[in-house]
Structure formats: structure tokens, C-alpha cells
Amino acid sequence: MRSLLQDIRYGFRMLWKRPGFTAMAVVALALGVGANTAIFSVVNAVLLRPLPYSEPERAVVVWLKGAEAAGGDRVPMSVMDLLDWRARNEVFESVGAFTGGQVSYTGGEAPEQIPGAQATADFFDTLGARPRLGRTFKPEDERPDAERVAVVSDGFWRRRMGADPAALGRVLTLDGRQYTVVGVMPEGFDFPTQDMEVWTAFQVRPPSRRGPYFLTGLARVRAGVTLEQARAALNAMPDPEHQGNPPQGERFNMLTVNDYLVGDVRPALLVLLGAVGLVLLIACANVANLLLARAASREREIAVRAALGASRWRLARQLLTESVLLGAAGGFAGLLLSVWGVDALLALSPEGIHRLREAHIDGRVLLFTLGVSLLSGVAFGLAPALQGAGADLNETLKEGGARGSTEGRGRRRMRDALVVAEIALALMLLVGAGLLLKSFTRLQNVESGVRAERVLTMQVSLPRARYEEGPKRVEFFRQLLERVRAVPGVESAAATTSLPPDLLTASDNFSVEGRPEPPGGELPVADLLSVTPEYFRALGVPVVRGRLFTDADREGTPPVCVVNETLARQFFAGEDPVGKRLKQGGSDRPGNQFMEIVGVVGDVRYEGLHAKVQPAFYLPYQQSPWFDMSLVVRTNVSEPRTLAAAVSKEVWALDRDLPVARVATMEELMSRSVAQPRFRTLLVAVFSCVALLLAAVGVYGVMSYAVVRRTHEIGVRVALGARGRDVLRLVVGHGLRLVLAGIGCGLAGALLLTRVMEGMLYGVSAADPATYAVVALLLASVALLACFIPARRATKVDPMVALRYE
């Protein structure tokens, strides 16, 4: 212990004596450790921190599988699917369902929409969640004639009920109906979406048909049953739509609750963690090179120690202790940097990442930082320590006598290898950033199908209790749109059930008149929208053929529809779709009439800019009135948001209890659609720039040191007639060989590592040759510039000074 304390004190003195060296090393390590700590704090909050449920690994979320236009492998279930599942359940402790969204809350200072969900009686028990006050739902709450009850979140209880323990039994007005509060959930419970505020009991009414499809299944696997066994049992259930025939392929899709909440963001976070890991490795290589250079200046000291009897292990331990102290100093500086980094990440992060706002520096993150710092100290200090302590005493003393002219071959090779590694790691990170940047650029340039400039949007939801009749809903929006069009600055106004670029509300199957149903009765699926006549004009959707809706397309007139180009191309190739007729729904909806196609419009992306455009058909709102609608207001002002107050005032003039929610411009909606790709692209680009800077500094440092070590040799060469370009070629040639070796290794590594990014790329391959070529050229240019500066300095060496150089 005494010798260890002695090593620590001596290490501190040596670092203090070389403040420039220490500062460079600490800064490099702080960048690497700080970036790793900041990203790990996010990974810890989102991926590693356990969910506040009992045995969450046994809770699963279930969907149907279907056509891509209906949701792909995440198709909602119907009430009949839920009842069939419950009747045939063998491997689940409990089976339930939920549907999430927004609910209108009136009872505060102003009407508003809040996140809410309807859930079956076993929703909370299936998740393994217990209330902090009161109770959750009971089986009798599902009865159609039961009293309406609600459970509220901890945040709702504190903000809107004053954290009153006597809040149980209060009545809330949600969507125009009265609900009695029976429970309060603990802090941190927000399933199924972030910031969920209220859950109401879903009252199960016996269905008359298979649809509609709007529920997400939720179940708890029995103890002792694996997830694969549960999945197999679920998909072995007969499909009622196929008259008891064996199911064709998998009918259900199942994910654990944890995968449901964070599965989409997990690959991006792991890529970011890998990116900062590469930055740390480059920083370690940089510091290792600094230590090797510093060890060369301490050859005499180490030789004297060895001559006085110090063992190789004793010398290595001393040098390694200094490296660990350096790593600890870099870790401490990195921890301070990460506090700012976490705040920056939260400020830049997009909405919707579950539990991201909980990211902070906690005990687990501190342990991670401590471990990374100590491991980094060992990693970058081990090779220099062994190299310095293991040098041959006689050779070292010989080299020390002519220090200006030569250097140990082993140490030189070690430094060259570290430079090659730095360049290879930097190139891998730069390739990843280049691919993400190219993908993001193409995503931003995707044609959305609408003119987004000067468009204001907002959501208006009519309570079912007061607008149960369709004509009342039609009349409300007719009056509202007339009033909005009269607002100064408004060019046109309309209402729709869905908004681009990624707010699709519904899809449905359909059949074409005169064509037989496909084998198995699986009708095609298309996006479904109900819109008012001016919708296409307000969003700038072009008319390709036929006409648009008019006020004459109302209840009591022949049903009509408008289809998009994709539906017309896929189902009416080579013929004019105008005049043809579609029927919404399948064979379980015999009451539906065929709708005449009166027009074809351009494609609009309703499922995300990255998603493939799906077939879509539009219905006139007067013939298909919905409760939840979004207003689309085209203005002639540069800042559409300035009209939000005036438009909201017109809503409240018709009904003062209606909340106005999700106020945003169409340009803001487009920006939010690419928020996650923008976030990860920005972070990887920043880390890549740091890596490029560290690699350039590393190359510059090694070449500068090499020039200093070879000053005597260069002087001899100049004295013997070598010209400046010969010296330049000598130094740059050595650097060029290192750069090319690093680029070669980096290209091979990038081809392997970028495969994990394929799911995050849009319109670009993970092996895109143009990106690889541009990145390699950029890195080579920067590295060669770092070589050229010391090489240029070498050409100006005075032979007389160089020959006396010691």
C-alpha cells in the first residue's frame, strides 16, 4: 500500500510538471467520456431502467396482422376478436385491450384535450400496476349499463385536483359524458403513451359484425409459459373469417410491453452508443500516442530506475498508475461535460421517446463513468507502460546517446499502429454519419403531396353525448367553416379526419363492383378519409381526373368517393376509374351501398414521409360525418399561427365547451415527421466531427514528433544535397502510408458495422459507394493536411542547427 501511495503521489507530480501534456490528454478524454456518459444516461433511462410494473417481461401487447395499408403487422383488433380470444385463451393469465388517443376535458379554466385511453377491466392487473389511491377497474365496469368510471394519473391528480386525498368519487366531464373517479395511479405510470392522464373503463357491447378495428390487445403470459409458446398458442387459434379452416401463417403479432414502448427507438440509441464508443477509442489512441511520445523523453529516467534495481513490473505499475490518474481526471472533466450534454440532448430530442425526459446523472450513470474512465486509463496506458518498462536497458542507453537521430523501432511501430487505428475508427464513424445525412436529405426532399406553406391546422372533437346524430355534426362543421372563411387572412378552410404527413386515423377494406372477391375473402385495404369539399384546395392536392366533392354530395344523395392515383393505378390500370363503383367494407357489411368514383386526386402521404404511399379513398363529410376532425386553414399571411386565436374564437362562438387542440402549421407537422431522423443524424454528425478532429490532431502529433525525432537525420540529408521536395516527400510519404492503411481498414470495418443501420436509412444503401468515396477522400485530405504542416516545417531545417541537435 505504501508503494501504491508513493506511485500515486509521484504520478500527480509528473502530471503537474507537464501541464500542456496533461491538458491535451484530459481534454481528449473528457470529450470521449463526456459523450459516452451523456448518451448512456439516455440509454439508461429509456432502455435499461425497469418499468414500474410487476414482472413486466410477462406482459405483452397483441395486434392482428394484415395488409400494409391497414397497419402491416400492427392491425388493430375488433371487439369480436377480443371476445373470441378470451373464449379460447389457454396460456394467458388475463386478456384485455385498450385504445388510446385524446379526450375532451371540460371542468378546468378552459376546455382542452388531454391524453386518455379506454381500457378493459383487466388492463391494470395485466400490466401488474397498482393504484396509489382507490381501485382500478372491475369486471362489472365493462357492462354496457354500468356506471362510467375513470382512473386518473398522478400528474392529473396533482395539477387538476390539488393532490386531494378525497378526490375519489369526484365527477369528471370527458367527451361530454360524466365519469366518476375511482382511482389514482402512482407517479411514473403512463401506459400506453407518454403523459397519459386519464383511463376510462371500456364498456363491451355485443358486436353485430366483425369490425370495426380499433383495439390493441394486452395480455399477461402464465408463469412457466415462454413467449414463443404463447405466440404459437395465439396463432393456433382458428380464424373465424375462414370458417374454422387452419390459419394461413401467423394471424397475430405479439411484443413485450417493453419492446412496444421502446422497440422503435432502440436501434437508434444503440447506434449512438456505438458512435460515442468509437469517439472514446479514438481519444484513447490519441492519449496513448501522447504517452508514447512522453515515454521517449523519460528514457533516461526509466533506464536509471532499472539500473538501480527497479523491476519491470514496478516500472510498468508506475507508468500505469499515471495513466489511470490521467483517465480519472479525464473522467471527472467528462462527467462535468456530460451534465451539459444531457441538457443539450433533452433540448434537441424529439417528442414521443418513452421516458427520455427522465434521463439524468444517477448512481448507475456515475458507476458507468467511473468504469469507463478507469478502463480508458488502463487501455491507453497499458501499451506505453509495457513498452517503456520492457525496453532493453543497453539499447535504451545507446539510443539515449543519440536521441536526436534515431528511435526504438518497437515504439515507432506502436505509434504508427495507433494512428492507423484512429483513422480507421474515424472513417467508420464518418461513413455512418454520411449515410444518415444522405438518408435524411432524401427524406426531407420526399414529395408529401401537399403544399405545406401558409397552412394552419388544429383538431376539434365533438362530444358524442351532444352530437350523437350525424346531421348535427354536419351542421356544426358547415357553420364553423363558413365563419373561419370570413376571418381576415383566410383563403380557404376545410375539415378532415386525417392529416399528412403521418396522422392517418382509419383504413378499411373495399371491393370493386363486378369483380369477384380474392381467394380467402381477403379484400384489399386502403386509407380512408372523410373530408369537406374544400379540403383538396386548402392543402393544394391536385385533381388528376374527374371532379371533387360539392355541397350537393350530402345525405340522401347517391354515395360518391374520390380515390388517389395509387388506388386508380393498382385497381384500374389501363381504364378510367371515374364512373366505376367501390363498396366500403367486406361481406360482413351488407348494408353498405356502392359508391361512385367521381374523381382522382394526387397521392398524399398520411403514414409518414418514409412510408410507401398506400391506396386511399375519400368520402364526403356530409355522407360520412365523424366526431374528431382536423381543421385545415390556408392563409395569405406568412405566419399562419397568428390566426390561431381568431379561428379558435369561432369554434367557441358555436360551442364554448369544445377544446381546440394540436394547433400547428403544416410546415411544423412536416418538421416533426422527420424529428427522430434529424436528431440521430445531428448527433452522429457531431460525434463524427469530434472524431475527425481527434484523428487529425493524432496524425499531426505523430508526424510532428517524428520530425523532431528525425531532425538530426533530416539535417544530414540536407547537408548531403537533399532538396526541400525530397524532405517533403519523405515525411508526407510516411504519413500517406499510414493514412491509406487506416482508410483500408476503416472501409472494411464500415462495410460490416453499417449493416445495423439499414433499418434507419431511407433511399440509400448501407454500402452506398458514393458516400464511402466522399468520406474516404475527406478523411484523406484532412489527414494529409495534418501531415503536410510538420513536413513543411521539416523542409526549413537548418543543417548546421540540425547536426548539433540533441
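(ticket continues) Second input and output from the same batch:
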Amino acid sequence: MDDLLADFLTETDESLAELDVALVKLERSPGDEATLALIFRMVHTIKGTCGFLGLPRLERVAHAAESVLGRVRDRKLTATPEIVTQVLEGLDRIKAILAGLRANGAEPAGDDAALIATLDGIAERRARRAPPPDAVPQASPGGEPVAGAEPTAGEAAAASQTIRVGVDVLEGLMTLVSELVLTRNQLLQLARTEENPAFTVPLQRLSHITSDLQEGVVKTRMQPIGNAWNKLPRLVRDLARDLGKRIELIMLGAETELDRQVLELIKDPLTHMVRNCADHGLEPTEARRAAGKPESGRITLNAYHEGGHILIEIADDGAGLPTAKIRAKAISLGFATEAELAAMTEAQIQRFILRPGFSTAAAVTAVSGRGVGMDVVKSNIERIGGTIDLKSVAGQGTTVTVKIPLTLAIVSALIVQAGGERFAIPQISVVELVRARAAALDGAAADHAAADPAGETSVIERINDTPVLRLRERLLPLVSLTGLLHLEGAAETRPDDRAYIVVTQVGATTLGIIVDRVFDTEEIVVKPVAPILRHITMFSGNTILGDGSVIMILDPNGIARATGVGVGGGDPRAAGRDPQRAGPSLHGADGPTAMLLFRAGDGAPLAVPLALVARLEDIPRARIESSAGQPVTQYRGQLMPLVPFAGALDAGRERFTVLVFSDDSGGGPARSMGLVVDEIVDVVKDRLRMQLGGARPGLLGTAIINGASTDVIDIAHYLTLAFGDWFKAPRAAVAANVLVVDDSGFFRQMLAPAMTAAGFRVTAVASAAEALARRDAGEMFAAIVSDIQMPEIDGFELVRRIRAEGAWAELPVIALSGSTEPADIARGRAAGFTDYVTKFERDALLASLRQCLGQGAPPLGLAA
């Protein structure tokens, strides 16, 4: 039995129980219009739901009873005992059908013709004036027995399976369970410190019962997230009408359950994000048609469980976030400088939309444009211990992922110590634990760590006084909890100066929190922060441990804001850099410039302007591949060329330090190049004044940096080694979507990769009929490439139908054929083809496509 049918049975049982009482009351007081209205409304609801669920037998009986009640409501009949009895008989029949439906999952067989005929006969009686209420005979309490007034034992048992309980009762029960959990934790703490075998077994039993009771009470507070979505279809419908767009809303995982309190807190953020998708995300119909997209935009909501948390995805298939506009707005609002933005990735720039007062809307409308939206969403999500992440692809859409805890009352937390004080970090934010060693940033550090008897290879390094950790393939920014909170207690002495690092997730970035000691995970009861401490955003609450100690609960998002990591969006310091220390320009004529110093080969450090470096990476040899003899690596879904500064990769090294340079000014996906060096030395801030010119290719010249003569590399030289066309004309902003129609699967599989490599998005179908079906469904393409010889509908007939009507009538259509005789070309011109290309000439096809899409001269094949 599905959930919808189960809910119907439960609600109908409740309604029938109320109807029994109400009908008896109506029989005693036929003039009670409120009771009559209640009865009619409940029977009408039952009938309507039966029709919706496809229960014809139930619907027929309920409809007959509703007809009688409708005549009574309209004062065409009086609720005499006879009429009430017949209606109650109808309700008894409904109960019997429901019993069979509950037992078998389907309506039982049966003949209701006689009952329906009786009810219809009552409803068709001649209308007569109803007597005034005080003149209607009153049925005595002990007079005529009413059929069905008393529920049977089976019906009472079914109704007792579900009850409605007030929210305040559940809240009080949750409070008692929370206190029980605290008491359980205190007893467990005593058991660890004082050995008393007599209490061991009962205490374990008490712990298990407490856990089961806690789980059961939490379940009573759980509600499907669909309850928070129920107003969204109407919202999207109204927005589509107001904005003049066609919008389709898809909701997946509506049955996913979460705590009622969390559900209430996410309703408004969800509503705002859906409004943003409709207004900002989805393009107008004309723009979607021009981009080769379906005219109807799509907003998708998806909720699911993952690792004890709830993940909610709000996605649209619109144009994606306008990175250029966001960049310009960030500069105009003073959120970042040109140099700082140049050092950021596209994802980091996009996260500026989470900053207060940020909006790219051209004008304020009733829907948006005031800049008070996404920052409120972010704040509300973080207030309940959640995180928010963005992912946007130009021309394809944006996805916002929200990660929130199942419940706020009792959570799992990691207990740590710093400066002699203990703290709790919610488990939802903890990614992993790392034990590391502080070491000088020199070439021997890695060898020293590798030789560590404990097998610890992680080393805390410093770049311009910023502690970082080389964690696998990236540099992790670190913050000392003792220093951040100005704790006076001395840190514990650790052998070999080892440190414990709690790696936490902060939006799209990660942050390492250095602590003195790590204890264990514990179920804690979250208490609100006292008003006197609420201005300290690094705390999200407090709790009581098993030994009675009161400790603060840390908020990793607040710690990130306090240290500048992840403010508004991802922070470039995640790569070990501080954008606030970057200079205002690359040349630094009017002020100092941040320079990255590195070594490559034997000799003095080299320098490159920090603003040019997108990221620092530590790549293992296993991730390096070869393409046409050049080393490459897979980087963010693309192949990134690697250029060894020394000319070749060191055969004896297993890991390589890479400076990543990226450029997205071409409008399409960003291109990246990795410059392989030996090691990072430091980040310094100094005036960049060239003293000598470049002595060889690849060098801009020599400057005095940090008191020493330092060669400054010419990054343009190395960019052109990776991409010869790096500084040529910009690439197309969005790849055109081309429909390929060919009945040969082999040819489709051969042609699609070649067109994709040339920068087109390819949709391939096996017949002209399928192509026309896509047109009728509203799909749009920039151009069509069609074979001539196809079964059923050939290419000539296909192009004639395309030109005859529909949204594709003006699209370029290129014919593919093994024969290009003049007669064939003339026939193609008459049918409506834009160009005619020999089937196996790939270069000619690509050239024709570019010409037809306005990227070259007019097509030649069908010239007059």
C-alpha cells in the first residue's frame, strides 16, 4: 500500500468517526446549519479524494450520499430520521469498502445498486418547504436507533492506530528526553572514572533504552519536507505569469523527513531560492529559443539523506550565474579589487552573491533587485548549523546545494580542547581529523616528515605568516583556536611539536582548526547562547557534558568569517594566499605588489605577481598523464597542460608543486595552465621595479625583492607554450547546440565526438520522425545536420516539413550525402537546405556549420 492511499485511509477513518457523531447531532437539531455544512464538506472531500485515487465504487456511494446532503443543505429536504438513517447506511457501506481496501490494497467486489437507488430516490423527491427549526420534530435521545452510530470493535482498533498530538506536548517530551540524555552522559562519565561492576550492566541497559527513546521521540517530530514545498507550485505558477515565462517545477524526494523545527526554518530560504531561479536563473522564452533550449524552463527541487544529514538541491536549467556582472558589481561595491578578483576562481567570484546588499538585477522589481536575498538565505541556513554551496555552468544553469542537520535539539559533536578549555564542534561540519607536525619550510621538511616513526607525513608550513597544511592535493588554510579565542591557558606539550587539526567544511571551501587535544564524539543537547555572548558569532550554542561541565559549541562558519576564510564566497587563502595583502596593480609603480617566490632548479628564488596565480596545487605523479607528448593532468573536469619550468619533469620526484594560471575572459569555460616548479618559498610584498631587462625568453627582468635581486618570470611565455592561441581572439561564449539526424548508428558515433571536439554541443537522433517529435515538444537547436537517405521520412521530406511550419522554420539545415552532383544540390536547394556537404568530409561540415552560425563567410554549397 502506497503512502498516499495510507494517508487517505487514516484521514477518512477520522472523518467517518466525526460524521457519525455529527449526523446524530443533525438528526436531533435539523436546523443546525453549521453541523450540516460540516457534514456536507466532509462527504464531499471523501468523494473528491476517491475520484482522485481511482476508487470508483467508493466514489459512487459517496456521491449518492452527497446528493442527499446537498438537497438538505439547500432546504429542499429536511433531515428526518429516515433520511439520516439512509445516509448512515451509506457511511456504513463506505466503512465496509474501506475495510476491504485496507486488507487487500484494492476495492472489494460488491453490488451497491440498491443502496444507491434508495439514496438517489430520496434526492429526487419533490422539493417541499422545510419547516422552521422550532417546528421540526426532535428525535428523543432514547427513540429511534440510528444505524452506524456506534463504531464496531474493528473500526475502533483501526482508528486508534493514529492520533493527533499537540506540538507543545511533543516539545515538552523532547525537552524531557534531552535532560535524560544529559543524565545518561553523566552516569557514563562516572562509570568511566569509578569502577563499580554492580552498576555496569544496568547502566548499559539504561543507555540503550535512552537511545531508543530518543530516536522514537525524534521520529514523532519528523515531517516530510514536502510540507515545506506545498506552496511552491502556486508560487511558480504566479511567477511564470508575472515574468512572462514558461516554467516547469519538478519536486523529487518530497517524502524525505526532517525535524519540524528545521522544516519551519528552511521554508523561507527555499521560497527565496525558487524565486531567484525563476527571476534571475531562467532566461526569457526568446532567449531560450535562441540558445537552442526548450522554451519551458525547469526548476528542480531534490531532497535526500546523506550521512545523517539532509541535502536539498535547488537547480535551474537557465543561463547560469553572470560572472562578469558579479565581478563588476563586486568592484563597484568595494568588496574586492581588480587584483584580488584576478586571483580568484570563477566559483569564488560567484559566491559574492551571498554577500549582504549584493544584486546584479538591473532594476528593482516586485520579485527581486533589492540585494537582501541570498545573504539572508545563507544566514538562516548557517543559523541551524547548515552550509550552502553554489555550482554554476554558463549556458546550462545553476545548482544551489543546502546541507542541514536532521534535528537541532540533540546532535553528534566532536569534543576538543584548546588553551585548557574544551569545546564541541558539530559532527555535520567535520570532514576529517589530521595529526600534523610543525616544521620549517625548507626542502628537508618533507624528508623529515617521511622518516617520522609514527608515519605522519603532514607538515604545517607558513606562507607569509599564514599557516597552511599540504593535505593530499591541496593547501589547507589553518587557524589556531587558542590564538583566535585569545585563551590564556598554555597548550599541552606534544612530542615533536605535533598538532591536531580538525578539517571542517565551510561552504565551498575547507578550513583546518588547530587544537591541542581531541577527545571523542558525544551526543550533546544544544542550548541557546546566552544573550551576553550572542555577538560572538564563533559560538552557535552551549551544552553540558557528562561531568557537568558547561562548554561552548563552535560554529565553523563563524570562525571562517572571523578569520576571513569563505567570507561571502570561497577565499583565495584556501590556496595559501591572502588577497588583502595583494597590491593594487601588477606593476606596482605606485605601491607594493604581492609576489610569489618559488624555486625551480638550482639557483636563487624566482618571482611571479601573486595576482596572476589562480591556485597552488600539489599533484602526485600518478595523476600526470600524457597528451601528444606533453604532460597534462585532469583539473576541474578539464585537461590542464603542465609546463615544467626546468624543461622536463624530474624523474625522481613523486609529487610536484604546480602554479595554476587560469583565464575565463574568452567567455567560455576557463582555460588553465600549470607551471611545474620545485617548491614555494614565500609570499612577500614589495615594489616591483625592474632593474635589468630579461636576459632570456621567459624572463621579464630582474628586480630587488625582499632585499635580494630576483628574476621575475614572463608568464605569457609559458602560457603560449601550453596554448599557442592563448592570446588570440576570444572563444565562443556558449557552444552551439546542433541536432544530428542519421539512421546509421555508426556514423552518429563517429560524427558526434568530432563535432564536440570542434566546440559544438551535439544531440543525435536516429530518424526524421524523432527529430520532428523534438520540435513539437518545444526543443530548440542552433542548426540541424541531416542525412539524405533515411527510411520512412528522408532528408528532403524532413527539411520540407521543417520549413513548412514551427519554430525551426528559419534554422540552418545542412544536408549530408554521399552524392553531390549538381542535380542533387539543385534538389536540396528546392527542398530548403541551407548547405549541401559530402557525408565524409568532416572539415567541410565544420566549416559549413561555422558559416551558417555567423562565424564565417556565407555557405557555398547552395550558392546560386
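Agent notes: The radius of gyration is 36 Å. The CA atoms of residues 89 and 167 lie 36 Å apart. Closing as not reproducible unless the customer responds.
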